[in-house]
Structures are given as structure tokens and as C-alpha cells.
């Protein structure tokens, strides 16, 4: 079954949106198979956002994502990568459709509440960066 990496960013955690965000994915029918509240070490943030290292906002991006606790998650389900991206909405909250997480709660492109893997390759890389295999649960016996 497909897995994706989702993360409530420091702005979402501080605004008390963890429960709301977890509920949206549970209500949709996806399974939460890994989760932790953590402050991301700077070296991990730089790896996570490595593809943006030449962008002018890279320093700001790493400063922000390491500025407070994030809620890192692994979710499982059919087409969860693309569906979660749709549920998150566009990166710029002003362009995100109402009803999506960023459309409902986001204000700026930097403080846009949630991160989600954009492809199977990114999902694999991001899950491995944030979670040990032992930290990922299996629901198979229950289903
Ligand atoms: P995310 O999905 O976490 O992946 C890369 C992030 O870069 C993106 O969400 C935005 O929050 C952030 N980002 C994109 N453009 C800008 C920008 N112009 N200034 C600051 N952050 C940005």
C-alpha cells in the first residue's frame, strides 16, 4: 500500500491545528502508521529541503521549519500521495481552494501549515529521513 510523509509545520502546531489535520486524513479513510512531535535538527531540515538549496528563500525556509516543534507523520492508503496533496491545496495559500487545509488555514507561502511529499520518490526519501523502520506500524493484521 502507498505511503506518504506529511508534516504539520511549526505555525500549524502553534495554532493548535494538529487534531484538525489528523481528523481530515482519518475521516478521508487513510491510516496513520507513524507520528511524532519533534524539533527538526538543522542538518535534517537542510537535507529535507535540499532541492531548494539554491533558492533565495532557502535560509528562511530552514530557519522557520526548525523554529519550533513540527508533527511528522506517515500515512498509508490507496493513492495517498496525490490525494493528500489535493487535500492540502496549493503551496500559496492565496491560490489554495477553500475546503483545502491551506485554503482554510494558511496565510503566507512560508507559513502554509503543512508539508506533504510530492511524488513516490520524495515520499520514500522523506519517510526514511524522519522515521526508523521500527517506528512505522502495520495495520495489515487489523484489516
Ligand atoms: P513545502 O511544501 O514545505 O515545500 C517547500 C516550501 O518552500 C513550501 O512548502 C513553502 O512553504 C516554501 N516556499 C516556497 N516559496 C517560498 C517563498 N517565496 N518564500 C518562503 N518560502 C517559500
UniProtKB/TrEMBL annotation:
Q: Subcellular localization, per the record?
A: Cytoplasm
Keywords in UniProt for this one?
A: ATP-binding, Cytoplasm, Kinase, Magnesium, Metal-binding, Nucleotide metabolism, Nucleotide-binding, Phosphoprotein, Transferase
Q: Where are the transmembrane segments?
A: none
CDD domains this protein is in?
A: NDPk_I
One of the protein's GO biological processes: CTP biosynthetic process
The residues annotated as the active site are 115 (pros-phosphohistidine intermediate)
SUPFAM superfamilies recorded: Nucleoside diphosphate kinase, NDK
Protein task = (Microbial infection) Catalyzes the phosphorylation of dZDP to dZTP, when the bacterium is infected by a phage that produces the substrate for the synthesis of dZTP (2- amino-2'-deoxyadenosine 5'-triphosphate), which is then used by the phage as a DNA polymerase substrate.
Query: What does the record note on quaternary structure?
Result: Homotetramer.
State what protein this is by name: Nucleoside diphosphate kinase
Protein source organism: Desmospora activa DSM 45169
Q: Identify the taxonomic lineage of the organism of origin.
A: Bacteria, Bacillati, Bacillota, Bacilli, Bacillales
Amino acid at each position: 500500500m502507498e505511503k506518504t510523509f506529511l508534516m504539520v509545520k511549526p505555525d500549524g502546531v502553534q495554532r493548535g491545528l494538529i487534531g484538525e489535520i489528523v481528523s481530515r486524513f482519518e475521516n478521508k479513510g487513510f491510516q496513520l502508521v507513524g507520528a511524532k512531535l519533534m524539533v527538526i535538527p538543522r542538518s535534517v531540515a537542510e537535507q529535507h529541503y535540499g532541492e531548494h538549496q539554491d533558492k533565495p528563500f532557502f535560509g528562511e525556509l530552514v530557519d522557520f521549519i526548525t523554529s519550533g516543534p513540527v508533527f511528522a507523520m506517515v500515512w498509508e492508503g490507496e493513492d495517498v500521495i496525490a490525494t493528500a496533496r489535493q487535500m492540502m491545496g496549493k503551496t500559496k495559500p492565496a491560490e489554495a481552494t477553500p475546503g483545502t487545509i491551506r485554503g482554510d488555514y494558511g496565510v503566507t507561502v512560508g507559513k502554509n501549515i503543512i508539508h506533504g511529499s510530492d511524488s513516490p520518490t520524495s515520499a520514500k526519501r522523506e519517510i526514511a529521513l524522519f522515521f526508523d523502520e521500527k517506528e512505522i506500524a502495520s495495520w495489515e493484521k487489523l484489516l
